[in-house]
Amino acid sequence: LSGAYDYRLEPALDAKPGDFVVAPLGVNEYVGVVWGEASGEVAESRLKLVAERLDCPPLPEELRRFVDWVAAYTLSPPGAVLRMCMSVSAALDPPAGRIAYALSGDKPTRMTAARQRVLNVLADGPPRSIADIAEAAAAGPGVVRGLLEAGALKAVELPADMAYPAPQHGRPGPELSPDQSAAAARLREAVRSGAFSVTLLEGVTGAGKTEVYFEAVAAALAQGRQVLVLLPEIALSAQWLDRFEQRFGVRPVEWHSELRSTERRRAWRAVAEGGAHVVVGARSALFLPFPALGLIVVDEEHDASFKQEDGVIYNARDMAVVRASLAKIPALLVSATPSLETIANVEQGRYARLHLPERHARAAMPEIAAIDMRASPPPRGHWLSAPLHDALAETLTAGEQALLFLNRRGYAPLTLCGACGHRLECPNCSAWLVEHRLARRLQCHHCGHAMALPKTCPSCGAEDRLRACGPGVERLAEEIAASFPDARTAVMASDTLAGPRAAADLVAQVANHEIDLLIGTQIVAKGHHFPMLTLVGVVDADLGLSGGDLRAAERTYQLLTQVSGRAGRAERPGRVLLQTFSPEHPVMHALVSGDRDGFIAAEMQARRDTAMPPFGRLAALIVSGANLGSVQRVARDLGQHSPRGEGITVLGPAPAPLSLLRGRHRMRLLLKMQRGANIQQVLREWLAPIKVPNDVRLAVDVDPYSFL
Ligand code: ADP
Ligand code: ZN
Prior knowledge:
31% helix, seven-stranded parallel β-sheet, 19 helices, alpha/beta, binds zinc ion, binds adenosine-5'-diphosphate
């Protein structure tokens, strides 16, 4: 909904702002939240009555204001934002003495496919709520109720949820170095002051940033407050979870998309009741109903995965700062390679900065060198240059581990017909199909479309002429298997891992040195600590630089710094080899010379000169739909109504680089304004007169990260 509706409340309901209630809307009843005083626009006599108040802690005032704030900032309906705060409807009912349903043993007289699925689900699993059974069986709740009435199910009472054990914040942490101690003291101070502040905790990979911010977590817990830690890839963060447990004696409460529905419900409810003390989660955790939040930590604050790209389009890093300011608590942004946005905020005095300049225990930073691929080209059909090959051989002979980094899943990014030059493309997207040889299929990385590799070219009919072009991690693994047959090798990419468990197992195997050579995409770049890993080879350092993205250089620098940081984290020194066709590129130069400050200064200047973020503001409009004509009409209409004025630039409408995505045509416009301008106001006025037909979607992306 685009705003609150007026209702009448019976005093007997005793509902106050923030309370969850059930109210009629149209012909149905929905769960909603009491938002505040009525607008008075509807005559008293015509108001509908709120039906029921749910037995659930109210949505805190701070969170309600946050919902309104995010909605206004992202130009989303407040209802869409509020829905993210109440994502687990089952949690709105109290868990105590929960009734669940199990098989009674009697068969229903009438059987349907949906009924059979429900019976199968219960035959294989524990008793559950009607909603959970319906979800697991992909059936409507009515089907489950029907079976209950037919006597095939029976009600059983389950014990209330188990409480989450409290972290032992009084346990001593490791002995901190003087730099670490000083930073920890400042953070504890910020937490105790009970006021809003933003601090950047910056330090090279392996500097002990995690240990330091654990001290801030402990300080917040000591005050009886809750803590939220946002991590980019929580499902891959087994090592982080283990470290938390070592420090605090218990595991934190996790919040991410891989949680089972019962765990989500338990976690949401515990957050609302204050029984979840530390929550570590993906960006959606920002919308949990903490009643006593005392600290928000955003680890790897520069990471692009904090940007949600569909539905309500928001950046969780930025919105975390907003929530902290509304809740009047400290926000802590952590990174080895902070975003230019955050650096600019530090330079302008809005954010404080704490710096850990050295690795813990004097571990040296790895030596980084570039390999000029023009001078040392690999043999045809190979991807490793002689210097990288030799370095791998040395490392393995020394009994150490190596990581080969290539940010490309699958076997080959492109399949080409040798006879006619035809490229295999996704039918639904303007993108090539990626060969996944292990899975024996071609796959679209945008929409998931998959097909078997054809025998003949779909364009010219030539037989057996389709050939793979370029490497993905699978193809690299093939080359390694041929060159280093004795090395114990593993591939780590999001599609080669079955889930968080498999990821944790593989990380543990590498940490225990059961793997000699790890080949991975960006998911290996983050956070992992592998003491015997001394060589990192970046197979295609130039990969992220093409495409003209505003942040291409910044992101490549961040990613390669991150992945380099996996080398030499313990006693043995590490080295990093970057295979590149342009060793003179500023990113390669900065990495090799270690001149980070020079790189940042040059990037900042370039952004300042072009009035790009963080010095200018951007908002993108994405028009999409299955009917190209409708999409073009809306885009043209937007173009004709483009805002004009001092300091306003509109680019487009133009077909998006991904002009077809999941069968939808896409066109884009980009609005650019000066920093400090009220871009939301301009957008609202621009969009107000635009008529968007039902078959077209108009998405607004304020502060865009993706320009595809
Ligand atoms: P960062 O988050 O900056 O990359 P970490 O906090 O992961 O660094 O620290 C790197 C490694 O050094 C981890 O294994 C950590 O446990 C260890 N470490 C850091 N500081 C200390 C300390 N003061 N005492 C003992 N071990 C530490
Ligand atoms: Zn596709």
